[in-house]
Amino acid sequence: MKEKYARNWTFICDPESLPTNWREILNTEQTAWVESPLHNKDVDSEGNLIKPHLHIVMMYKGARSYSHMQTVTNLLDQEAPKVVVATRGMIRFLIHEDNPSKYHYNYEEIICHGGANIEKYFHVSPTAKRREKQKKDQQILMNVITYTIKNKIISYDDLMQYILDNKKYDWLNVLSTGHRAMIVSALIESLERKKLTNK
Hints:
Mean pLDDT: 93
Low-confidence stretches: none
Helix content: 40-55%
Order of helices and strands: EHEEHEHEHHHHH
Distance between the termini: 78 Å
Structural class: alpha+beta
Radius of gyration: 26 Å
Number of helices: 8
C-alpha cells in the first residue's frame, strides 16, 4: 500500500500520558502547529463525558509522510496521526465552531505555535455575511407569512400588536426594510377580501 503524504496532519492527545516536554518535541518540527483548548466537555452518543483530550494540527510547508508523522506521535506516546482533508474545517473543529450539537470551546484558548495564523479560518467575508443575513431575513419573513395565514390576520395593526406583545423585534426589523411590509400588507388585504367574499 502506497504511503500517504500530506502537508497538514492532525492527532488527538491524552494530556495525562503526554511527556512534560511535549510542546518542545513538537517545536523541533520547526513548523506551524495549533493546539486546541482542552476538550473536557465532549460527550458520547449516550451523553456520557468523554475523557479529556487535545486536538493537534500540524501544518508543514511541504508534504510529510505518514511514517514521519507516526514517529512524531510515537515520541509523544499518542494515537496515530490522520491527514487533514480540509484545513479550515479542522481548525474550526478545535472549538466545534460549526457543530451546534457539540460543546463550544473558547476561541481565545486556541494556542498557536511556530507562527501559525488561524484568524483567516474564522473570518467571514462581507459577501458571506450578506448571504447569511438574507437567508435569515427570508426565514423570518416566511414565519410572518405563515403566522398571518394560519391565524387569518386581516388587519395590519393586529399583526403589529402581536409583534409588540411577543417582543418579536426580529419580525419588526425585517418588515421595516425593503418591500417586505408591502408583501405582508397585500397578503392581509387578500385574506380580508376572502373573508368578506365567504360571508
